[in-house]
Amino acid sequence: MTIFNIATGGLSLIGTTMQGYILPRGVRTPTTVVVTSSAAVAEGATTMQATAATAATVVRAGQVLVFSPAAPSGVTARSFVIVSATTTLGTTASPLPIFPLRTAITASSTAAATTGMIPIFGLQEFGLQGQSTTVDITGTDSGSSTEVLKIRDTREFSINLIERNADVGLGTVVKPLLFNPAFADREMWMELVMPSGESHRGATMLTNPSKPGNQNEVARLSFTATIQGASYQYTDGFIYA
Predict the structure, then answer these.
(1) pLDDT in tens, the chain (241 residues)
(2) CA angle 114, 116, 121 (to 5 degrees)
(3) Cβ neighbours, 10 Å, residue 78
(4) What is the C-alpha separation between 211 and 192, in angstroms, rounded?
(5) Residue pair 66/96 in contact by the 8 Å Cβ criterion
(6) Which fold has domain 16-31+118-241?
(7) Model-level pTM?
Protein backbone atom coordinates (compact mmCIF):
# COMPACT_ATOMS: atom_id res chain seq x y z
CA MET A 1 0.00 0.00 0.00
CA THR A 2 1.37 3.41 -0.94
CA ILE A 3 1.30 6.15 1.63
CA PHE A 4 2.16 8.98 -0.77
CA ASN A 5 -0.18 9.78 -3.66
CA ILE A 6 1.88 11.41 -6.40
CA ALA A 7 -1.20 12.87 -8.11
CA THR A 8 -2.53 14.71 -5.08
CA GLY A 9 0.42 14.84 -2.69
CA GLY A 10 -1.84 13.36 0.00
CA LEU A 11 -0.67 11.19 2.87
CA SER A 12 -2.90 8.29 3.92
CA LEU A 13 -3.58 7.92 7.63
CA ILE A 14 -4.68 4.28 7.33
CA GLY A 15 -2.70 2.24 9.85
CA THR A 16 -1.94 5.09 12.28
CA THR A 17 -1.01 3.50 15.60
CA MET A 18 -1.02 4.38 19.28
CA GLN A 19 1.32 2.63 21.68
CA GLY A 20 2.54 3.28 25.20
CA TYR A 21 3.07 2.19 28.79
CA ILE A 22 2.45 3.62 32.26
CA LEU A 23 5.44 5.68 33.39
CA PRO A 24 6.95 5.23 36.86
CA ARG A 25 6.24 8.14 39.17
CA GLY A 26 8.58 11.07 38.61
CA VAL A 27 9.88 9.72 35.29
CA ARG A 28 9.20 11.28 31.89
CA THR A 29 12.11 9.86 29.88
CA PRO A 30 11.74 6.43 28.29
CA THR A 31 14.50 3.93 27.56
CA THR A 32 15.16 3.33 23.88
CA VAL A 33 17.21 0.75 22.01
CA VAL A 34 18.56 1.28 18.50
CA VAL A 35 17.36 -1.37 16.03
CA THR A 36 19.32 -1.59 12.76
CA SER A 37 18.33 -3.20 9.46
CA SER A 38 21.10 -5.64 8.57
CA ALA A 39 20.19 -5.63 4.87
CA ALA A 40 17.97 -3.77 2.45
CA VAL A 41 14.26 -4.64 2.66
CA ALA A 42 11.99 -4.42 -0.39
CA GLU A 43 8.49 -2.96 -0.44
CA GLY A 44 5.97 -5.70 0.34
CA ALA A 45 8.41 -7.81 2.38
CA THR A 46 7.00 -9.63 5.43
CA THR A 47 10.29 -10.22 7.22
CA MET A 48 13.56 -8.33 7.65
CA GLN A 49 16.95 -9.00 9.16
CA ALA A 50 17.69 -6.76 12.13
CA THR A 51 19.93 -6.30 15.14
CA ALA A 52 19.44 -4.48 18.44
CA ALA A 53 22.12 -2.49 20.24
CA THR A 54 21.14 -4.26 23.48
CA ALA A 55 20.88 -8.03 23.82
CA ALA A 56 17.46 -9.60 24.48
CA THR A 57 15.48 -6.61 23.21
CA VAL A 58 11.81 -7.56 22.97
CA VAL A 59 9.58 -5.98 20.32
CA ARG A 60 5.87 -6.81 20.60
CA ALA A 61 3.39 -7.82 17.94
CA GLY A 62 1.72 -4.61 16.79
CA GLN A 63 4.61 -2.37 17.90
CA VAL A 64 5.67 0.25 15.38
CA LEU A 65 9.26 1.04 14.41
CA VAL A 66 10.17 3.97 12.15
CA PHE A 67 13.42 3.46 10.23
CA SER A 68 15.54 6.35 9.01
CA PRO A 69 18.26 5.83 6.37
CA ALA A 70 21.89 6.12 7.43
CA ALA A 71 22.71 8.54 4.61
CA PRO A 72 19.59 10.44 3.49
CA SER A 73 19.83 12.51 0.32
CA GLY A 74 17.36 15.20 -0.71
CA VAL A 75 13.80 14.58 0.47
CA THR A 76 13.77 11.05 1.91
CA ALA A 77 10.83 9.15 3.34
CA ARG A 78 11.14 7.27 6.61
CA SER A 79 9.95 3.63 6.66
CA PHE A 80 7.00 2.67 8.85
CA VAL A 81 7.16 -0.92 10.13
CA ILE A 82 4.54 -2.83 12.14
CA VAL A 83 5.93 -5.92 13.86
CA SER A 84 3.67 -8.94 13.19
CA ALA A 85 4.88 -11.29 15.94
CA THR A 86 6.59 -10.70 19.28
CA THR A 87 10.33 -11.18 18.71
CA THR A 88 13.53 -10.95 20.72
CA LEU A 89 16.41 -9.20 18.96
CA GLY A 90 20.08 -9.17 19.87
CA THR A 91 23.42 -7.99 18.59
CA THR A 92 23.49 -10.74 15.93
CA ALA A 93 21.20 -10.33 12.93
CA SER A 94 17.98 -12.33 13.19
CA PRO A 95 14.59 -12.34 11.38
CA LEU A 96 12.00 -9.77 12.44
CA PRO A 97 8.49 -10.60 11.13
CA ILE A 98 6.59 -7.55 9.90
CA PHE A 99 3.34 -6.72 8.15
CA PRO A 100 3.81 -6.09 4.39
CA LEU A 101 6.27 -3.22 4.11
CA ARG A 102 4.95 -0.02 2.54
CA THR A 103 8.23 1.86 2.01
CA ALA A 104 11.51 0.08 1.22
CA ILE A 105 14.26 0.15 3.85
CA THR A 106 17.93 0.62 2.97
CA ALA A 107 20.64 -1.39 4.69
CA SER A 108 21.92 0.09 7.97
CA SER A 109 18.77 2.14 8.50
CA THR A 110 18.00 2.64 12.19
CA ALA A 111 14.93 2.93 14.39
CA ALA A 112 14.63 3.82 18.08
CA ALA A 113 12.57 1.12 19.80
CA THR A 114 11.09 2.34 23.07
CA THR A 115 11.40 -0.29 25.79
CA GLY A 116 8.14 -1.60 27.26
CA MET A 117 5.81 -0.33 24.54
CA ILE A 118 2.37 -1.95 24.34
CA PRO A 119 0.26 -1.40 21.19
CA ILE A 120 -3.28 -0.10 21.69
CA PHE A 121 -5.59 -1.40 18.97
CA GLY A 122 -8.92 -0.10 17.71
CA LEU A 123 -7.75 3.48 17.13
CA GLN A 124 -10.17 5.42 14.92
CA GLU A 125 -9.81 9.17 15.54
CA PHE A 126 -6.77 10.99 16.90
CA GLY A 127 -7.12 14.69 16.12
CA LEU A 128 -4.73 17.26 17.59
CA GLN A 129 -6.74 19.96 19.37
CA GLY A 130 -3.94 22.37 20.32
CA GLN A 131 -4.38 25.77 21.90
CA SER A 132 -1.80 28.52 22.11
CA THR A 133 -1.08 30.74 25.10
CA THR A 134 -0.35 34.26 23.89
CA VAL A 135 0.46 37.62 25.47
CA ASP A 136 -0.70 40.92 23.99
CA ILE A 137 2.35 43.00 23.01
CA THR A 138 0.50 45.71 21.10
CA GLY A 139 2.48 48.95 21.34
CA THR A 140 2.73 52.46 19.96
CA ASP A 141 4.20 51.23 16.67
CA SER A 142 1.57 48.51 16.11
CA GLY A 143 -0.68 50.72 14.05
CA SER A 144 -4.35 49.69 13.92
CA SER A 145 -3.60 45.97 14.40
CA THR A 146 -2.89 44.09 17.60
CA GLU A 147 0.25 42.01 18.14
CA VAL A 148 0.74 38.91 20.25
CA LEU A 149 3.68 36.79 21.34
CA LYS A 150 3.15 33.05 21.54
CA ILE A 151 4.40 31.64 24.85
CA ARG A 152 3.46 27.95 24.59
CA ASP A 153 1.06 25.43 23.04
CA THR A 154 -1.08 22.64 24.42
CA ARG A 155 -0.64 19.21 22.79
CA GLU A 156 -4.11 17.76 23.30
CA PHE A 157 -5.29 14.84 21.17
CA SER A 158 -8.93 13.79 20.97
CA ILE A 159 -8.75 9.98 20.93
CA ASN A 160 -11.62 7.69 19.88
CA LEU A 161 -11.24 3.91 20.08
CA ILE A 162 -13.21 0.79 19.32
CA GLU A 163 -12.76 -1.53 22.32
CA ARG A 164 -11.25 -4.77 21.05
CA ASN A 165 -11.41 -8.12 22.86
CA ALA A 166 -8.30 -8.88 24.93
CA ASP A 167 -6.55 -5.63 23.95
CA VAL A 168 -3.64 -5.68 26.40
CA GLY A 169 -2.75 -2.02 25.87
CA LEU A 170 -6.32 -0.91 26.47
CA GLY A 171 -6.72 -3.08 29.55
CA THR A 172 -3.35 -2.50 31.22
CA VAL A 173 -2.51 1.06 30.18
CA VAL A 174 -5.48 3.15 29.06
CA LYS A 175 -8.30 1.91 31.32
CA PRO A 176 -6.31 1.96 34.58
CA LEU A 177 -5.28 5.57 33.90
CA LEU A 178 -8.87 6.57 33.16
CA PHE A 179 -10.87 4.53 35.69
CA ASN A 180 -8.63 3.30 38.53
CA PRO A 181 -8.37 5.96 41.30
CA ALA A 182 -4.92 4.65 42.23
CA PHE A 183 -3.66 5.84 38.83
CA ALA A 184 -5.50 9.17 38.71
CA ASP A 185 -2.28 11.23 38.84
CA ARG A 186 -0.14 8.94 36.68
CA GLU A 187 1.10 9.49 33.13
CA MET A 188 1.75 7.18 30.22
CA TRP A 189 4.48 7.40 27.62
CA MET A 190 2.46 7.70 24.41
CA GLU A 191 3.60 7.39 20.83
CA LEU A 192 1.13 8.29 18.09
CA VAL A 193 2.69 7.26 14.78
CA MET A 194 1.33 7.88 11.26
CA PRO A 195 2.17 5.59 8.28
CA SER A 196 4.42 8.31 6.83
CA GLY A 197 6.62 8.00 9.92
CA GLU A 198 5.37 11.28 11.37
CA SER A 199 5.01 10.94 15.14
CA HIS A 200 3.97 12.71 18.33
CA ARG A 201 5.50 11.32 21.53
CA GLY A 202 5.70 12.26 25.16
CA ALA A 203 4.59 11.80 28.75
CA THR A 204 0.81 11.96 28.50
CA MET A 205 -2.09 12.57 30.89
CA LEU A 206 -5.38 10.90 29.96
CA THR A 207 -8.58 12.76 30.92
CA ASN A 208 -12.27 13.19 30.07
CA PRO A 209 -13.26 9.56 29.43
CA SER A 210 -16.50 8.88 27.57
CA LYS A 211 -18.11 5.48 26.95
CA PRO A 212 -21.34 5.71 24.94
CA GLY A 213 -23.83 2.86 25.33
CA ASN A 214 -25.98 1.53 22.49
CA GLN A 215 -27.23 -2.06 22.09
CA ASN A 216 -27.05 -1.65 18.32
CA GLU A 217 -23.41 -0.56 18.42
CA VAL A 218 -19.99 -1.82 19.52
CA ALA A 219 -18.15 -0.73 22.67
CA ARG A 220 -16.35 2.57 22.18
CA LEU A 221 -14.08 4.70 24.35
CA SER A 222 -13.13 8.35 23.92
CA PHE A 223 -10.74 10.50 25.95
CA THR A 224 -8.32 13.42 25.80
CA ALA A 225 -4.59 12.68 25.68
CA THR A 226 -2.44 15.68 26.68
CA ILE A 227 1.31 15.41 26.11
CA GLN A 228 3.00 17.16 29.01
CA GLY A 229 5.45 20.07 28.85
CA ALA A 230 8.99 19.56 27.63
CA SER A 231 8.50 15.80 27.20
CA TYR A 232 6.79 16.46 23.83
CA GLN A 233 8.69 15.15 20.81
CA TYR A 234 7.67 15.64 17.18
CA THR A 235 9.23 13.86 14.20
CA ASP A 236 8.37 14.65 10.59
CA GLY A 237 7.71 11.73 8.25
CA PHE A 238 10.31 12.97 5.80
CA ILE A 239 13.97 13.91 6.11
CA TYR A 240 14.93 17.10 4.28
CA ALA A 241 18.66 16.64 3.79
Answers:
(1) 334 444 445 677 888 999 999 999 999 999 999 999 999 999 999 999 999 999 999 999 999 999 999 988 888 889 999 999 999 999 999 999 999 998 899 999 999 999 999 999 999 999 998 889 999 999 999 999 999 999 999 999 999 999 999 999 999 999 999 999 999 999 999 999 999 999 999 999 999 999 998 999 999 999 999 999 999 999 999 999 7
(2) 95
(3) 23
(4) 21
(5) no
(6) Pnp Oxidase; Chain A (2.30.110)
(7) 0.89
Going by the DSSP 8-state scheme, the letter that residue 147 receives in this structure is -
Q: Is 93 helix (H, G, I), strand (E, B) or coil?
A: coil
Q: Which of 237, 184, 235, 234 is nearest to 209 (CA)?
A: 184
Type of residue at 95:
P
What's the start-to-end Cα distance of the chain, in Å? 25
φ, ψ dihedrals at 53, nearest 5°: -65, -25
b/e string for 134-166 if b means 16 or more Cβ within 10 A? eeeeeeeeeeeeeeeeeeeeebbbebebebbee
167, 220 Cβ separation under 8 angstroms: no
3-state DSSP helix/strand/coil % of the chain, to nearest 5:
10, 45, 45
| Residues found in the chain | 241
Burial of residue 35 (number of CB atoms within 10 Å: 0-12, 13-18, 19+): buried
